[in-house]
Write a structure and sequence with these properties.
By secondary structure, the chain is an all-alpha fold. 57% of the residues lie in helices and 0% in strands. It has six helices and no strands.
Length: 121
């Protein structure tokens, strides 16, 4: 039976169709969210300077809440990224969506949960 399918060429067509479909799906998927769009140095500087102006230069708090791992333990990185992007209405926390891509905000959120680096790599 298999030999008959191979001889008819339908097996090869099926494999070809599967391969083309996989390549199309891979090409249409968004880039990995773990890789920021902006350079890492720029994101570190932004967090230290822009976020640090409210959250403290060491991120231990100020006008804004502390952004240390122990203070963010009750929120997942996706929630923190949404806060970064959309801000918190009625508070001084502004939205950064116009300046950051979603994957940049997610990268920042993950790094905040790990303990943000003190200097750019």
């Amino acid at each position: 039976m298999l030999l008959q399918v191979v001889r008819q060429g339908s097996f090869r067509r099926s494999i070809f169709t599967l391969a083309v479909t996989c390549l199309w799906l891979a090409a249409s998927m968004p880039p990995a969210l773990s890789t920021p769009r902006k350079p890492v140095k720029e994101l570190v500087r932004m967090v230290r300077q822009d976020c640090g102006s409210c959250h403290g230069l060491t991120l231990k708090g100020g006008l804004g809440k502390p952004l240390l791992p122990e203070n963010l333990a009750d929120r997942d990185a996706e929630t923190i990224a949404q806060i970064i992007l959309d801000g918190i209405p009625g508070t001084p926390m502004p939205p950064w969506r116009g300046l950051l891509a979603e994957r940049d905000a997610l990268w920042i959120a993950r790094k905040l949960k790990e303990g943000f680096p003190h200097a750019a790599p």
